[in-house]
Structure formats: C-alpha cells, structure tokens
Amino acid sequence: MPIAGLSWEPHWVEAIGIVAGSLTTLAYLPQVIQVWRSRSARDVSLGMFSLMVVGIGLWLCYGLLIGSPALILANAVTLVLAGLVLIGKLRFDRRD
Which CATH code for domain 13-92? Predict the structure, then answer.
C-alpha cells in the first residue's frame, strides 16, 4: 500500500529494494567468514539459522512468483550465505 501523499516511480522503488536487499545480504558475510575461518559455529544458533534458511527460501519463492528482481537477487544470495553458516554449524559442531 503506498504511503499517502507520496508518489514514486517504479524504478526508484525497485532501486530501494535492491539497496536494502544488498545491505541485509552483506550482513551475513562476516558470520560466514568467521564460521569457515575458525571452523567453529559453537555460538551460532542452529534453530535460528534453520528457521532463517527456510524463511529466506520462502521469500525467494515469493519474489519469483511476483517477479521482483530485488527480492529474487537478495534472497538467492542470502540463501547461499545463510546456508553456508547452517552447513558450517552442522559440519563443525560434530567435532566439538
């Protein structure tokens, strides 16, 4: 639903989505690097990342269904990054 009194061109709205998606996607990068460099995910919540991966997967499906490039791109990359953290959690915690 548009904000009353504001009228934005669709390309600006999509640009805002791409910037927002890029920032929230990049937020996962330090965690991915930390888990894989240290070979430890002891402080990572399995429940949180499991739910997050499922949720991101659903956001990706939603983006595909409505044809939103911002949602598709951001969630595809975020799914890979969050998935890497989850894989690291499952793989490295076995050794602890």
Answer: 1.20.1280.290
